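agent> Task received from the user: take the single chain below, predict its 3D structure, and emit structure tokens. No templates, no multimer pairing.
agent> Plan: (1) validate residues, (2) run structure prediction, (3) serialize to tokens, (4) report one or two observations.
agent> Step 1 OK, no nonstandard residues flagged.
tool_call: predict_structure(input=
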Amino acid sequence: EMAFAMGGYRNPSSMEHLDTTSDRWNALTGMSTARHSFGACAIGGYIFVSGGEEEIQEGMLVLCATVERYCPSSGTWTAMDPMPESRSSHAAVSVGADMYILGGSVGEFDEYELTGSVWKYDSVQCTW
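)
tool_result: status=success, residues=128
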């Protein structure tokens, strides 16, 4: 059993792991893209992180389409093919080897709108 905590408003690239034997959090290698309001799910022993909001300059946030995969055994992040569109505040769930991105916010700058669209990512073929 493992527990991970990633990103957020105060430290958007952070990654931590809960050691359940000592009940202590340990810092790990952070995400390549500093972000918050992203989706995350586990597939085949990896953690996939998708989209979210990143700050491109002080106070200016943009939605991103980037996807990263974390390997707990090596402690490394790998960039995956980006989502077909940028989005944040969405759900990311896994079913078998597939990741589904559901709903969230799309658009640019302060003109975000909610969407009900769904994208499927095949983690074996690495295709959307």
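agent> Step 4: summary for the user.
The first strand starts at residue 3 and ends at 6.
agent> Done.
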